[in-house]
Amino acid sequence: MAELLAVFAGARSAPLVAVGGVVVDHVPPGVKDFAIAVFGTHDKTALLTGTAILLGVYAFGVGLLAVRRWPLAVGGIVLFGLVGVAAAVTRPGAGIASGIPSVVGAAAAVWVLRHLLGVASVPDDDLVEGRRTFLKQVGIVGAVAVAGGVAGRWLTSRGAATEARKDLTLPAAGEPAPVVPAGAQVQGAVPYVTPNDDFYRIDTALISPQVDPATWTLKIHGMVRNPITITWAELLQRPMVERYVTLACVSNEVGGDLIGNALWLGTPIKALLDEADPLPGADQVVQRSTDGWTCGTPTAVLRDGRDALLAVGMNGEPLPVEHGFPVRMIVPGLYGYVSACKWITEIELTRFADFDAYWVPRGWAAQGPIKTESRIDTPRDGAKRDAGPVVVAGVAWAQHRGIAKVEVQVDDGAWETAALAPAVSDDTWRQWTHTWPATSGRHVLRVRATDLDGYTQTSDLADPAPDGATGWHEVTVSVS
């Protein structure tokens, strides 16, 4: 019932999603890191599944309580409803109507529980038939609940954004991206260009917002001389450029896969900021998503000439809804938590001293330049190989600085220089390959990269918090 009503009251008003959103916003950073480390891009599915299981256990307890003390059971359901209402109405942009699904859902739960108790209360001489009737009624209730929940979730996912995206034709790029050079892809490494379906997704939205481009606007305000508000149609009329840019999540562990490279289509944010004309001292650009999430980017970075974009396209098609449709930010050289706002609707010029974006109070650094890192894609950790030549390959990245050298070490031997593949620009990762004359036994392979500024990544292992992981990626290989 609540899921179906959430179709009309707003996807984030569904109790499961609303409560899950509150959990995401208030979970300690260590728990968040653990969830991403264990579940990766499936962390949201794991949270919703775990919440559903806990609710099932809670409902089971309410059912047992109802047999003995009906008023307490009703109180348990009311408590559930109140938690849902409180979570829903306190979400960014929510109103009183957001609490309706939880209220109606709780009322339906009281009625269902009363009905099932009546069915279960049968004389002892009719116990077998009563049990059959009870199980039949439970089955009907369960089937209706599943059907309603699935239908509500499906209808929510078929929102205005999904339908508008199907009919959208992207504008042509006035500045097409450079051609990917021959040899950019090496054997054994991940694809140089990450397909949309495989591109990592880390954000706080349990349900991807459905933003209708027909009603979308972007407001640029705050410490500016000329506040600007532009519509979707006006945005598409602005000069468009295509650029390959590699994005990375600050939560990426050493050797992790929370990184991807894509072709982005968008308009330069520098031109818009120049039109807004920031006031002196406005050193932070706060981006706000339609769901209230914020990130803060140094103003100077967005105006230093790098290809920072308000992106509308990804790999030749409109942005996928889960990646920010209709508009998101792309900033080469910065971790996503301080730059890559999805479903963006607002840009405010302010100061770092005056405002902390979403992740800063949760223990993360206010500014997050991407660190020089590298990864072994083949052979995998624990792989087995025959003695002889073995191809070792992977990727290295130092966005907006570029990769100058990659080295491979076997066990504790000398570092050997790998062959670097060409790349589109310094804003993308660079693939590398090395032929290792493998000998029998167990061996540890390590990799390190040096960027064009001359910095060689450190061997010191550090967790992702507060500003990105460090250390050399290593794999163990058995050779026979």
Distance between the termini: 60 Å
Unreliable sequence segments: none
Query: What proportion of the residues is helical, as a percent range?
Result: 25-40%
Strand arrangement in the largest pleated sheet: 2-1-10-5-6
Backbone structural class? alpha+beta
Count of discrete structural domains: 3
Strand content: 15-25%
- Our count of helices gives 11
- Write down the overall mean pLDDT: 92
Radius of gyration: 26 Å
Number of strands: 19
Shape: globular
Order of helical and strand elements: HHHHHHHHEEHEEHEEHEEEEEEEEEEEEE
Main sheet attributes: strand count, strand direction, barrel closure: 5 strands, mixed
What does this structure look like?
The chain folds into 3 domains: 157 residues, no CATH class; 155 residues, Sulfite Oxidase, Chain A, domain 2 (Alpha-Beta Complex); 107 residues, Immunoglobulin-like (Sandwich). The chain has 11 helices and 19 strands. It is of the alpha+beta class and 480 residues long. A hairpin with a 5-residue loop joins strand 1 and strand 2. Helix 2 crosses helix 5. The radius of gyration is 26 Å and the shape is globular. It starts with a helix and ends with a strand.
Which features does this protein show?
globular; five-stranded mixed sheet; Immunoglobulin-like; 11 helices; five-stranded antiparallel sheet; 480 residues; Sulfite Oxidase, Chain A, domain 2; alpha+beta
